[in-house]
Design goal:
It is a single chain. This protein has about 220 residues and is mainly β. The chain is built from one helix and 17 strands. Strand 4 and strand 5 form a beta hairpin. The mean pLDDT is about 90.
Length: about 220
């Protein structure tokens, strides 16, 4: 380290690190402690000042974590105002903490039944109508639409799904069949629709549910 007379060189240690012993070869270099922060973020600094020019000596600092070896030189004008270190174990710990947070966030935002990540799903649907098998949840992943049905549907015949298309000013919407499959109590539709109906039965006994995607 290069220091200058009438200037201070600041050596910053790792947060929480404590000095055990400090030995300087030439007493014409003074080393004083300074502290910044508090609690777990408290950091110890070594303030190094030479009393003369042309000095060349060594400094050994032992801490509760490691040993530092410095070579100290003094000049009239040139000096290093601030010195700090990087610690590979600290950097790895930070990356590990980031990975853990990402894993926890993904776990907290994943549907346990399907493993689908909520961050990629859209749930903005309105479900209107009354039926024993009224969907409990509707969402899409940008490619497929998933309609989750209640357990009661397993005791009855599954309703038919029809998608409504053609919403022009003078054209009545028409219902069309789309590709879908039943997976347990879920309808998996191979498209993202704006409006669809689930229909079961006929005549007065017909049950109908309308599903509308909201903007």
């Amino acid at each position: 380290m290069v220091c200058a007379v009438l200037q201070v060189c600041d050596v910053s240690l790792q947060p929480g690190e404590q000095v055990n012993n400090l030995n300087v070869g030439d007493p014409r270099f003074t080393v004083e402690p300074a502290i910044t922060g508090n609690g777990a973020s408290q950091r110890l600094h070594l303030l190094i000042k030479p009393l003369d020019v042309g000095l060349d000596t060594s400094l050994v600092v032992t801490t509760d974590r490691r040993t530092y070896h410095f070579r100290l030189r003094s000049t009239r004008n040139e000096f290093m105002p601030y010195v700090s270190f990087t610690w590979p174990d600290e950097a790895e710990a930070k990356w590990a903490a980031i990975r853990l947070r990402q894993q926890q966030e993904k776990h907290d935002n994943t549907l346990p039944e399907t493993g689908e990540y909520l961050g990629r799903l859209h749930f903005n649907y309105r479900v209107v109508g009354r039926a024993r098998w009224k969907p409990v949840r509707v969402y899409n992943d940008g490619v497929k639409t998933i309609i989750e049905m209640p357990g009661a549907m397993q005791q009855t015949e599954a309703p038919s799904l029809l998608v409504m298309k053609g919403r022009g000013l003078f054209a009545k919407p028409e219902t069309v069949m789309v590709n879908y499959r039943l997976q347990g109590s879920r309808f998996i539709v191979d498209s993202v629709f704006d409006k669809a109906v689930l229909v079961a039965g006929a005549g007065r006994g017909q049950e109908k549910i309308t599903i509308q995607r909201c903007a």
